[in-house]
Amino acid sequence: MRIAVAGGTGAIGRLVVEELKTQGHEPLVLSRSAGCDLTNLHSVKQWLVDCRAVIDVSGASTTSASTAMRYFTQSTSNLIRVGREAGVKNHVALSIVGAAEIDSGYYAGKAAQERMLQILDGGCTILRSTQFHEFVGQNIDRLGAGPVQMAPKMRLQPIAGVEVAAALIELALQPAQGLVQDLAGPKEEDMPELFAQYLKHQGKNSKIIEVPVPGAMGKALRNGGILPGGSARLGQQTFTEWLARQ
C-alpha cells in the first residue's frame, strides 16, 4: 500500500517510514527537503497520487501559539483537501496528550488541528500520544550551556518512538476512526531525572538545574497536565530500557 508520511524526515516520521518499508508498504515522504511545502496548497497538489492513507507527523519549530495554529490549520487543510480529491481513505494525525486542555504555545496548534479534524465528516483518525523517549535528548541539546544543564520541571510518561510509529501504521491500515484511545509510556517520570540518566549514559557529569517553565504551559507541565488518564493504552518500553539500547 502507498502511504504518504507528512513530516517523514522528522524524529517520528523517520521511524514511520522505516517501519512501513519493513512491512512491505510504499512510504511517500512529504517534507520541505523532499520539495513539499505542506502550508502551500499548490505544492501539496503535486503529491498524494495513488496514496490510500496519510500519516501526518509534521510539526513546526515554534513556541508561538499563533504561529503553531497557522501552521497546523494550513497544513491540515491542504492535506485533507488534496487527499480527498486523490481518494485518500484515512488521514491519521498524531496529536499530544493534554494539548486540547492546555491550548497554549505549541499545544495551541495541535488543539486547533484536532478541532479541525473532528468537525470533518469521516476520513480522519486522531491519535494522542505522550512525549517520546527521544524528546529527552532533543531538550538536552537545546537547553545545555557548558557544564550546566537546565532541565524543565515537568512530569511526563514518555513512550518509545517506535511504539508510536507502529500504532500510527496500524491505524492507517484500518478505516478512519475519529479520536481513538490515547497512547502513553508505561511509567510516569520526572524530566530532571531523565536528563540525569541520559547524561550519565553519555559519560557527562553536567550540573542539572531544574527550571520551572512560565505561564499556563509550565503550570500544566508541573501539575500533570500532560499525563495520560487511566483509559490510555500503555506502551511497553521504559525510558531506562530504551536508553540502554542507544
How would you describe the overall organization of this protein?
The chain contains ten helices and 13 strands. The protein is of the alpha/beta class and 246 residues long. It has a single domain, classed as NAD(P)-binding Rossmann-like Domain (Rossmann fold, 3-Layer(aba) Sandwich), CATH 3.40.50. The strands form four sheets. Strands 2-1-3-4-5-9 form a six-stranded parallel β-sheet, sandwiched between helices. Helix 1 links the parallel strand 1 and strand 2. Helix 1 crosses helix 7 and helix 3 packs parallel to helix 5. It is globular and about 55 Å long. The two termini are 31 Å apart. It comes from Glutamicibacter ectropisis.
Topology:
Blueprint: E1 2-6, H1 11-22, E2 26-30, H2 41-44, E3 53-56, H3 65-86, E4 90-96, H4 99-102, H5 106-118, E5 124-129, H6 134-143, E6 144-145, E7 148-152, E8 155-156, H7 161-172, E9 178-179, E10 183-184, E11 189-190, H8 191-201, E12 207-211, H9 215-222, E13 233-234, H10 239-244
Parallel strand pairs: 1-2, 1-3, 3-4, 4-5, 5-9, 7-12, 10-13
Antiparallel strand pairs: 6-7, 8-11
Labels describing this entry:
246 residues; alpha/beta; Rossmann fold; six-stranded parallel sheet; three-stranded mixed sheet; 10 helices; 13 strands; globular
The first-level CATH class is given as Alpha Beta
Provide the CATH superfamily: NAD(P)-binding Rossmann-like Domain
Characterize the overall form.
globular
Write down the Rg.
18 Å
- The proportion of strand residues reads 15-25%
Name the average pLDDT: 94
State the CATH topology. Answer: Rossmann fold
Count of discrete structural domains: 1
Strand order of the largest sheet: 2-1-3-4-5-9
Number of helices: 10
Order of helices and strands: EHEHEHEHHEHEEEHEEEHEHEH
Distance between the termini: 31 Å
Total strands: 13
Which architecture would the CATH scheme give at its second level?
Answer: 3-Layer(aba) Sandwich
**Poorly predicted ranges (pLDDT <50, ≥5 residues)?**
none
Structural class: alpha/beta
Percentage of residues assigned to helices = 40-55%
Largest sheet: 6 strands, parallel
